[in-house]
Amino acid sequence: LEQFGGDYGYPGAPRGVDQMRVADFQRLQGTVYLDHAGAALYSEQQMADVVKDLTSNVYGNPHSQSDSSMAVTDQVTAARHQVLKYFNASPRDYKCIFTSGATAALKLVGECFPWSRESCYMYTMENHNSVLGIREYALSKGATALAVDIEEDKGLEKKHGSPSSDLFKISRHSNQRRGGDVLSQNCQNGSLSAVSENNWNLFAFPSECNFSGQKFNLNLVKLIKEGNLVGLPSQQQQGQWMVLIDAAKGCATEPPNLDVYPADFVVCSFYKVNLYAPIIGLKSWS
E-assigned strands of 71-167? Predict the structure, then answer.
């Protein structure tokens, strides 16, 4: 408070945090809740609105043909559009997919990704276990899995004022591959020979790390997709790169702007925003 006291309580907002607590979180009373990042609290007003909606409308099976089923379909469609708007994502480029959890959303990416023996799955060391689990799908198809650390020179960024591959340094860890070692060695040392331009690779990183709180620079998205990140095999060497952002933690305070940072896949957990909500995944449609 000594350092940021002037910003405490959203001073420019219609209601400060103290007023919000009294009006919308009366059940807290004297409780100090310290897991807001892991499971954000829903407000009393939010639950009152939900109950009013459920007791005022008749919702049926969305797979049926009736007024009640159409009411559900309309709500689901509206919810998808609201999610896309939250991430400034165009419906022409992205589709919103509701899943049972963030792990299920990541599992879906791993299952549906077009892995081949020439593919490389690269992921940062600072990642959730569910993101690491994707490598099992990659390895099962003969692809290479490689963990990396990314260091950012923020001083250089201030000097240049624009994103550049020189701002980032990739440090590679030991790679994994089931069966054969030629491609995995090449992926590690960056000496890959030309492969099919239809070969697809996946790079995964969190917008904000669950454990350390580190926020990754989202300018990485374009650099990776364009093959311009130093230490990353080029498109001629490795084929096309797609990007997965795990925004489960970061979406609560700073959701990725997909119009500016066009990642191919984004996983979001809305119960970390207000608890009473589903988990979703965003997939690029282009």
Answer: 94-99, 120-124, 144-152
pLDDT at 218: 95
Question: Within the chain, which residues score under 70 in pLDDT?
Answer: 1, 154-165, 179-197, 233-237, 275, 277-286
- Residue 179 exposed, middle or buried by CB count within 10 Å (0-12, 13-18, 19+): exposed
Q: What is the pLDDT of residue 160?
A: 52
How far is residue 268's CA from residue 273's CA, in Å, rounded to a whole number? 10
85, 183, 202, 278 from 168: Cα distances, Å = 30, 25, 18, 34
- As annotated, the residues of the chain forming the CATH 3.40.640.10 domain(s) are 94-284
Query: What pLDDT is recorded for position 124?
Result: 94
Dihedral Cα 82, 55, 274, 85, nearest 10 deg: 0
143 Cβ neighbours under 8 A, 6+ residues apart = 115, 116, 117, 118, 119, 120, 121, 177
**Strand residue runs (E) in the chain:** 94-99, 120-124, 144-152, 168-176, 200-206, 240-246, 265-269, 279-284
The tokens for 229 are 């990140």
According to the model, what pLDDT value does residue 286 have? 39
Instruction: Indicate the fold that domain 94-284 takes in CATH.
Output: Aspartate Aminotransferase; domain 2 (3.40.640)
